[in-house]
Write a structure and sequence with these properties.
Distance between the termini: 48 Å
Radius of gyration: 15 Å
Largest sheet: none
Structural class: mainly alpha
Length: about 50
């Protein structure tokens, strides 16, 4: 578990601070950020109703 947290911390550092991340690091971080974003969108979003 500690190794996975270190990987995520290193990926966040490379993506947002250094700016020299590879595709795998970018994909991990964007998926990590997309999950809470979509949860908030589906919870508080207003979708059109088809009546």
């Amino acid at each position: 578990m500690k190794a996975k947290l270190n990987i995520i911390k290193k990926d966040l550092y490379n993506v947002f601070i250094m700016g020299n991340a590879d595709e795998q690091q970018l994909a991990r971080i964007y998926i990590l950020l997309a999950i809470p974003f979509f949860a908030l969108l589906f919870t508080f979003g207003h979708f059109p109703s088809y009546k």
